[in-house]
Specification:
Largest sheet: 8 strands, mixed
Shape: globular
Bound molecules: acetyl coenzyme *A
Mean pLDDT: 97
Order of helices and strands: EHEEEHEHEEEEEEEEEEEEEEEEEEEE
Family: Belongs to the transferase hexapeptide repeat family.
Number of strands: 25
Organism: Chitinophaga oryzae
Distance between the termini: 41 Å
Strand content: 25-35%
Protein name: Acetyltransferase
Helix content: 10-25%
InterPro entries: AcTrfase_PglD-like (IPR020019), PglD_N (IPR041561), Trans_hexapeptide_repeat (IPR050179), Trimer_LpxA-like_sf (IPR011004)
Length: 223
């Protein structure tokens, strides 16, 4: 079967991680990168270059027969804004998932669209991953979790069963989240935190056990 042509939006290190995952999947043909800041034809990696700005996607779709692609931007707010812009200029653009072949995803898990599951990720039974999330290298998301849209899970995070993580929240590298914990939307859980109690929306928590450090304001940086 002929592979569908896709683009990767974002040319950071994360963009190249996503590119390698997509290459290993052998389901899509990557035609190039989209970037808001780099000029067209900027070399990226392998033979791939920047094809244009997100506003160029409609034209590029006609030129390259583009099916869709993935937004590979690590910051949750920037990723969400980019998805909105693409939906506005190219409503037919299909957002694909990049799931590393070494990831172990339960057949009873539900995975939305536009997600990245990196190497050695485990998604256990009855867990739902929304849309446009990043589950980074070797993270383990256990049974009956609900991970909402535009959330990012850094490398080596472990969640127990029945954990809920709200939209646009960032969980830092190596954090551990006890079973039956609810984490609100737009939160930051710092690197190495051990979360033993519920995390209120729009707040920053870290430490062992994790404590609330401060509220987050709109536009505050994530990691
Ligand atoms: C593939 C990838 O790279 S994915 C990305 C992976 N990266 C991450 O996961 C990074 C996660 N980020 C963090 O943990 C950050 O430190 C944040 C977001 C929690 C920063 O929080 P801030 O409150 O702004 O921290 P700030 O840098 O101002 O430091 C304030 C104090 O808190 C401490 N601190 C900061 N983060 C943590 C943490 N995670 N755990 C314990 N203490 C911390 C600092 O050491 C500092 O202490 P001091 O005042 O005694 O010197």
């Amino acid at each position: 079967m002929q592979r569908k042509n896709i683009v990767i939006v974002g040319t950071s290190g994360h963009g190249f991680v996503v590119m390698e995952i997509l290459q290993l999947m052998q389901e899509y043909n990557i035609v190039g990168f989209i970037d808001s800041f780099k000029p067209k034809n900027t070399p990226c990696i392998d033979h791939l270059t920047v094809l244009g700005h997100e506003n160029d996607i409609p034209t590029l779709t006609a030129t390259y027969d583009i099916y869709g692609g993935i937004v590979a931007i690590g910051d949750n707010t920037d990723r969400a804004n980019m998805v909105s812009r693409i939906k506005a200029v190219a409503p037919g653009f299909k957002f694909v998932n990049a799931c590393h072949p070494s990831s172990v995803v339960s057949p009873r898990a539900i995975i939305g669209e536009g997600n990245v599951l990196c190497a050695n990720v485990v998604i256990n039974t009855n867990t739902t991953i929304g849309n446009f999330c990043i589950v980074n290298t070797a993270s383990s998301i256990d049974h009956d979790n609900q991970i909402m849209d535009f959330t990012s899970i850094a490398p080596g995070v472990t969640t127990g069963g029945n954990v809920n993580i709200g939209a646009n929240t960032a969980i830092g590298i190596g954090a551990v989240i006890k079973h039956r914990i609810n984490i609100g939307e737009q939160c930051v859980v710092g690197a190495g935190a051990v979360v033993l109690s519920d995390v209120s929306p729009r707040s920053v928590w870290y430490g062992t056990p994790a404590r609330k450090i401060r509220d987050r304001q709109p536009g505050d940086k994530y990691l």
